[in-house]
Design brief:
alpha/beta, D-Maltodextrin-Binding Protein, domain 2, five-stranded mixed beta sheet, 295 residues, 43% helix, ABC_Gly_betaine_transp_sub-bd, globular, 2 domains, 13 helices
């Protein structure tokens, strides 16, 4: 767990910033921390705090004040998985923003235009040879009994919102005996299995902003029919903390607005491929952003 010494400048208790344990969570948590530090706001960091439910519980109990979350997770927080609003970026953000404000006094700030949803990627050589670019193409290949073997997490295989949603939307059934189920949800494991053809695997569960997709020469199958819930990252902050430091909202808005899917893929790649520390990557990006006209 990463933490720093809390600063008690201006007589205020610090804003406690957390993140989930994954690469992108630490990157975005680091950005939030650096931006708030530069605004003169006292901060304490608890990055890599744990998985979604642990971090969510911490903010609901007031143990932390702010962390980066994904709009689509609101579907599960509020038991509204079947609501079509979660598949539309603007409505997903508005819905979770309203529900969390009403029920938990949590404020969702401006989101990034980057979708970190579940997707399926295929080895580049196979995708090019077989003209596979969309989930329609992938479904047709499955129906034609192409020799596909998929690496995925147990959650991806078992959740009605993941593989089952792709199957229902595109009209195919992926044989379960052709799935190499990986422990945990680490997409580096699934991507490497496909890229290196481990155990005959040639397709992988990935996330939309994964940094190693291009490096490993994987081709993401475009979800043209919107089978998946939209997962756009945004800072979630306790209303009480936002009232103490109202400038948090404006300070973070421009940063998150600048983070496209391609930009997050590139930043994540600096961490997972080039093995640079997340805070260094975040700091350099914010410096570049600040130097741009209007940045």
């Amino acid at each position: 767990m990463l933490s720093n010494t809390p600063s008690f400048a201006h007589g205020h208790h610090p804003i406690v910033i957390a993140s989930k344990a994954d690469t992108e969570g630490v990157l975005l948590g680091s950005m939030i921390a650096i931006v708030l530090e530069r605004e003169g706001i006292p901060v304490e960091t608890r990055l890599q705090l744990g998985p979604t439910q642990q971090v969510r519980k911490a903010i609901l109990q007031g143990e932390i004040d702010i962390y980066p979350e994904y709009t689509g997770n609101g579907a599960f927080f509020h038991s509204l998985e079947s609501d079509p609003a979660w598949k539309v970026p603007a409505s997903a953000h508005e819905l979770v923003k309203r529900l969390d404000a009403e029920r938990h006094r949590l404020a969702w700030l401006d989101r990034a235009p980057a979708n970190n949803t579940w997707l399926i990627a295929v080895r580049g050589d196979l995708a090019r040879r077989s003209n596979l670019t969309t989930m329609d193409d992938f479904a047709q290949a499955v129906r034609a009994s192409m020799n596909l073997r998929l690496a995925a997490s147990a959650e991806f295989v078992g959740s009605p919102a993941a593989l089952a949603s792709f199957e229902a939307t595109y009209g195919f059934h992926f044989p379960r005996d052709r799935i190499a189920v990986q422990p945990g949800g680490n997409t580096m494991t699934t991507m490497r299995a496909a890229a290196q053809n481990i155990g005959g695997v040639n397709a992988a569960m990935v996330y939309g902003t994964d940094g190693a997709i291009a490096t490993l020469d994987l081709v993401v199958m475009k979800d043209t029919r919107g089978a998946q819930i939209v997962y756009e990252p945004a800072p979630v902050v306790r209303a009480e903390a936002l009232e103490r430091f109202p400038k948090i909202s404006k300070a973070l808005a421009g940063v998150f607005a600048s983070l496209s899917t391609a930009k997050l893929q590139a930043l994540n790649a600096e961490i997972v491929v080039e093995e640079r520390p997340a805070r260094d990557v975040a700091e350099r990006y914010l410096d570049q952003l600040h130097r741009r006209p209007g940045g």
